[in-house]
Amino acid sequence: DTEVTQTPKHLVMGMTNKKSLKCEQHMGHRAMYWYKQKAKKPPELMFVYSYEKLSINESVPSRFSPECPNSSLLNLHLHALQPEDSALYLCASSQGQGANEKLFFGSGTQLSVL
Amino acid sequence: KNQVEQSPQSLIILEGKNCTLQCNYTVSPFSNLRWYKQDTGRGPVSLTIMTFSENTKSNGRYTATLDADTKQSSLHITASQLSDSASYICVVSGYSTLTFGKGTMLLVSP
């Protein structure tokens, strides 16, 4: 299994809603990532987990809350989002955290905040 | 500041034709360079990885080149197919950094 699975594929939420994005991989990778991608822009790193510990937070607003329940799962909890948070949210994993590592991306969750 | 510049921003070619995408970088120190293909609404998929000592690497109809002296890379697509329509992103790794280019949007027209 060389896939990173993300659910849901699409999500529409209001600014007062609470929702969660889920990501799962069974490749034994020890690093997992959340990226945000706006249309026609490259992915922007949000969070990195290494061995289930948060290692990088790229100054992301607290309305985004990551969680890594175990080595295969990564969640992103959303609360009180703004319309400008609408984007494609990509999860990725790699064997280790080093910059040389190949990233395996999921298909993403297309999020629309109304 | 680490930067990755890609050109052209977008490109339209006829099916069966060849094309070349460019990537210039200022990442230092340099570790490796990857080309990713991203279909619309999907996550990027790695096509090739180039390290400092490699000049050319092929993956099917995709051939990547790297000139570490001029800090330039290219991705050549041979005999394009409709399924090649996608965004192609150049990603350069430093020892602890990962810098994404903005991508080239390729449209292969029948």
Write a brief structural summary.
By secondary structure, chain A is mainly β. Chain A contains no helices and eleven strands. The model of chain A has no long low-confidence stretch (mean pLDDT 93).
Radius of gyration of chain B: 13 Å
State Rg of chain A: 13 Å
What is the tally of beta strands of chain A?
11
Tell me the span between the first and last alpha carbons of chain A: 36 Å
Name the structural class of chain A.
mainly beta
- Round the mean pLDDT of chain A to the nearest integer and report it: 93
> In angstroms, what separates the terminal alpha carbons of chain B?
41 Å
Strand content of chain B: over 45%
Which chains have the largest interface?
A: A-B, 21 and 22 residues
Order of helices and strands of chain A: EEEEEEEEEEE
Helix content of chain A: under 10%
Helix content of chain B: under 10%
What is the oligomeric state here?
Answer: heterodimer
- Unreliable runs of chain B, pLDDT <50, ≥5 residues? none
Range of strand content of chain A:
over 45%
How can the largest sheet of chain B be summarized?
6 strands, mixed
How many helices of chain B in DSSP terms? 0
How many extended strands of chain B? Answer: 11
Averaging pLDDT over every residue of chain B, what do you get? Answer: 94
Written description of the protein model:
- The complex is a heterodimer of chains A (about 110) and B (about 110).
- With about 110 residues, chain A is mostly beta strands.
- Chain A is built from no helices and 11 strands.
- In chain A, strands 2, 4, 5, 6, 9, 10 and 11 form a 7-stranded mixed β-sheet that branches. Chain A has a 4-stranded antiparallel β-sheet with strand order 1-3-8-7, with no helix packed on it.
- In chain A, a hairpin with a 2-residue loop joins strand 7 (about 65-70) and strand 8 (about 75-80).
- Chain A starts with a strand and ends with a strand.
- The mean pLDDT of chain A is about 95.
- Chain B is mainly beta and about 110 residues long.
- In chain B, about 0% of the residues lie in helices and about 55% in strands.
- In chain B, the strands form 2 sheets. In chain B, strands 2, 4, 5, 9, 10 and 11 form a 6-stranded mixed β-sheet that branches. In chain B, strands 1-3-8-7-6 form a 5-stranded antiparallel β-sheet, with no helix packed on it.
- The N and C termini of chain B lie far apart (about 40 Å).
- The interface of A and B includes residues 4, 88, 90 and 110 of A.
